[in-house]
Amino acid sequence: MQTSFTLAQLNDPQVASSEKILRACVHCGFCTATCPTYVLLGDELDSPRGRIYLIKEMLEQDQPATREVVKHVDRCLSCLACMTTCPSGVHYMHLVDHARERIEKTYKRPLIDRALRELLARVLTDTGLFRLAVVAGLIARPFAPVLHLVGLRRIAAMLRLTPRRRPAPPIDRTGKVYPAQGKRRGRVGLLSGCINPVLAPSTNEAAIRLLNRHGVEVVVAAGEGCCGSLVHHMGREEEALAQARNNIDAWIRELEGAGLDAILVTVSGCGTTIKDYGFMLRNDPAYATKAARISARARDITEYLATLDWAEAAAPVPLTIAYHAACSLQHGQKVLREPKDLLGKVGFVVKDVPEGHLCCGSAGTYNILQPALAERLRERKIANIERLKPDAVAAGNIGCITQLATGTGVPVVHTVELLDWATGGPVPEPLASLAKRAASAA
Ligand code: SF4
Ligand code: SF4
Q1: Measured between alpha carbons, how far is 351 from 323 in angstroms, rounded to an integer?
Q2: What value does the mean pLDDT take over residues 20-24?
Q3: Between 20 and 30 A from 27 (CA), which of 102, 121, 318, 442?
Q4: Which residues, judged by CB distance below 6 Å to any ligand atom, belong to the binding site of ligand 1?
Q5: In this predicted structure, what is the pLDDT of residue 442?
Q6: Strands 298-300, 262-265: parallel, antiparallel or unpaired by DSSP?
Q7: Which own/partner contact pairs does 353-357 have at CB distance under 8 Å and 24+ positions apart?
Q8: Ligand 2 centroid to residue 24 C-alpha, Å
């Protein structure tokens, strides 16, 4: 694609890097077929190619973002299916991240939008505040249909995502070390994160047990917190970079102290961002090298587990598992085989979900900010899952797990909880009654 930036514009390293991305696009349109918003809406401007044109124009003209640009960029899920499909290697992720940042800096959203975004940025990234919000959401949840009817669809969507049970106070694992069982074969850092300790503390509990059982010491680095992914995808770059720097400092202290073989992440959306810290901080002289070191060590938990020698294991109940490939894992990190291979290795029957490349509509805060599209994608995904008649769904991202669980009676669990169960851990809570039935039938 031809571009027409001035030399002065290209002096901005961010514009220079986006210009390179734009030039790689050959307008072939292959990406449109796999873009969820194009599949749903059929509008070129809601396809990757259309958005690339809009972003190019916005950056070249050096003007504040227009309503039209904001509308179509906001509808993008950042699912990155287009990057998997593109034959020219267009790095759409970095381009849309730049666009979101430009929008945030130059476009004044309506007051209600600004308030909601501010609320999400504050609450979702703070574990304590998030738990309070979940408890309040539990009380308000019954009013979701009324709020939907009176047009407050985003508030209604937020309430529908609230878990049905009051979450226990989150356990602060930061600064804690979980020793390996038997001979130590490795030492890893584990991201505790911000939402996970409230919505799914069982995931990291299972990850720690599983790693310890396989001879790996786990540390949750003192001082670590939200990875910055949620605000990064809202274009709030300074906040995202501050959160990234905070985690980098925490992990560098461990790296240079007792050492870390890897930094493991059980939420694939966070993993994609941490693997990108090196790019995000490439122009920061104080952090560029440290960020690149951290990104090089970051792994999805299943990537690391796949490198270990596994003890003999057998699925406690021979379940059929529909494997839902989170976009951030399959498109963002290109981790495709490991979760399925591991589940198969411990005796589960694993099935791929048809149209597996299409997003479930979760996408960070997308299911709150774009509830209509998110619901359509969720329904489509669930219909594809239920066609397989699985006993359970496995996924590697809390966003997808929450999104899917609100729309199906099929239990949805994190992959590591199934692996932990199969190697001696407790039955994952959503599978408790299923396991009981199977045990009494045996
Ligand atoms: S990231 Fe996903 S929604 Fe956005 S343009 Fe690419 S395929 Fe479409
Ligand atoms: S597939 Fe790649 S090169 Fe073709 S239009 Fe899409 S982004 Fe551009």
Answers
A1: 6
A2: 98
A3: 102
A4: 35-37, 48, 51, 76-82, 92
A5: 67
A6: parallel
A7: 353/322, 353/323, 353/324, 353/325, 353/381, 353/384, 353/385, 353/388, 354/384, 354/387, 354/388, 355/380, 355/381, 355/384, 356/324, 356/325, 356/330, 356/384, 357/34, 357/81, 357/84, 357/330, 357/331
A8: 8
User: Strand 177-178 and strand 216-219: pairing?
Assistant: antiparallel
Distance (Å, whole) CA 372 – CA 366:
10
Cβ-proximal residues to 142 (8 Å cutoff; 6+ apart), any chain? none
How far is 173 from 85, CA to CA, in rounded Å? 39
Q: Among the atoms of ligand 2, which is closest to the Cα of residue 92?
A: 7
Residue keyed to tokens 């998110």: 374
Residues above pLDDT 70, as percent of the chain = 99
Number of H helices, E strands in the chain: 26, 9
CA angle 202–206–208, rounded 5-degree value: 120
Atom of ligand 2 nearest to the CA of 28: 4
Instruction: Single out the residue of 374, 429, 362 nearest to residue 401, CA to CA.
Output: 362
Average of per-residue pLDDT values in the chain: 95
DSSP state of 396: S
Let me know: does 213 contact 179? Beta carbons within 8 Å: no
Coil, strand or helix at 11: coil
Cβ atoms of 204 and 140 closer than 8 Å? no
User: If you ran DSSP here, which 8-state letter would residue 118 be given?
Assistant: H
